[in-house]
Write a structure and sequence with these properties.
- The chain has one helix spanning 33-37, and strands at residues 16-18, 21-23, 30-32.
- The protein is mostly beta strands and 63 residues long.
- It has a domain at 1-39: N-terminal domain of TfIIb.
- The longest helix is centred in the middle third of the chain and has 5 residues, at 33-37.
- It is elongated, with a radius of gyration of 17 Å.
- It starts with 15 loop residues before the first strand and ends in a 26-residue tail after the last helix.
- 6% of the residues are buried.
Amino acid sequence: MSGLPACPKCSSAYTYEDGALLVCPECAHEWSADAAAQGDGPVHTDANGNVLADGDTVTVIKD
């Protein structure tokens, strides 16, 4: 088989490249190869879209 990653949505091994995107023929999910190379962990952001990291100070305001 090829060295392409499995589909992150349905875990199918039958993925293929279509230009700059990777495509899953079973669920029609498309994603970029750059996104597949990044870590699988969740990315936490604040209300403005800034990425939060360990050690950041966060203030929670109750309405």
